[in-house]
Structures are given as C-alpha cells and as structure tokens.
Amino acid sequence: MITLVTGGARSGKSDFAEKLVKEAAGDAPVLYIATATNTDGEMDDRIRRHRERRPANWRTEERWQNLDRISLGSEKAILLDCVGFLLDNTFFSAISDWDDPKQEDADAAEEKVKQELSGLADLCSAVGIDLVMVTNEVGDGLVPATKVSRLYRDALGRVNCHAAALADHVYFSVCGIPMQVK
C-alpha cells in the first residue's frame, strides 16, 4: 500500500502520516526516511522535535538520494518525510547559477526526484511493505517572486502529481484534519 499525505505548512500532515505508519506496522519496526538537511539552528530544532516524537523501534535514515538502495531489516512500513525537502536538496545540487537558474537544470532535478520516488515505490511493492510519503502542497500559495522559487514550486507541483499517481491513497491535510482525496 502506498499513501501520499499532502498539505500546507503546519497542517498536521506529518502527524497524520506517522499515525498511518503506526497503524500499518503495528508493533513492528518502521523505517523513517528523513530528507531534511540541517542548515541552521532553527532547522536543527525542527529535526530534533521530529526525532523525539518517533517511537524507539523506528530506524531513521537521513538521505535524499538512492532511496531504492535502502537496506531493509524487519521493517513493516516506510515513512518518507518529506518529498519537498527531497526536491529541495536535489535542486540545490543541480542548480549551478542561483541568479539565473536554467530550466533544464530544474527539469533534471525534477526528473531525478520522480525516479527516486518510483524506485522507492517499486522497492516497497517488491518486498510487500507499506510506504507513506509526506509532501508540501504548493498549488494554493502565492506566485513566488524569484525565478528559482517559481521553478521549484512548479517542479514540486509536478512531482506531487507523480507521487499521487504512484499512490493507492492520497490525503490532503487542512488545519489538522486529513481528507481522503484518492
């Protein structure tokens, strides 16, 4: 079973995704794939809070590439949190000129993330474990002021569409209320 949970900032999407994974795995271990990188003190605090709320039997891998090469043990489910940071890190490595980012660099980053998600979904299907992915909904916000931000927003929207196509279930979280849309 593959599930995508999307929503805006602080919409409750990660909490809901963690609940889904706990239900899927029961008392069995879970693999938590954390894609955020520590860039400053505030981000360090966010990462710490996420770590503290995970059960002791959850294993964490902090990575944003080669997701299909993850070593699995006795895990019964995987939680990928989040697709937005996966794309963010891929963008950061692909864009060479932040003042004048190239569409082809953004397109390459987008395609790489789609391949990462497809590879992880294939791995989960092959070994018969549930996958829950968390992503940020960007389609309801303002048009970003910078070119690189617009490229990112557009790419994440298309990556989210790809992730939703891979998923058996899609939830949209608003104000802490998850609504099933697929």
Describe this protein's structure.
This protein has helices at 13-25, 41-53, 83-94, 103-127, 147-166; strands at residues 2-7, 30-34, 58-62, 77-81, 130-136, 169-174, 177-180. By secondary structure, it is an alpha/beta fold. It has one domain (2-180): P-loop containing nucleotide triphosphate hydrolases (Rossmann fold, 3-Layer(aba) Sandwich). The chain has a seven-stranded mixed β-sheet with strand order 3-2-4-5-1-6-7, with helices on both faces. It is globular and about 50 Å long. 36% of the residues are buried.
Measured on Cα atoms, how large is the radius of gyration?
A: 16 Å
The largest sheet has its strands arranged as 3-2-4-5-1-6-7
CATH architecture: 3-Layer(aba) Sandwich
The overall strand count is: 7
List keywords for this structure.
182 residues, alpha/beta, Rossmann fold, 7-stranded mixed beta sheet, 5 helices, globular
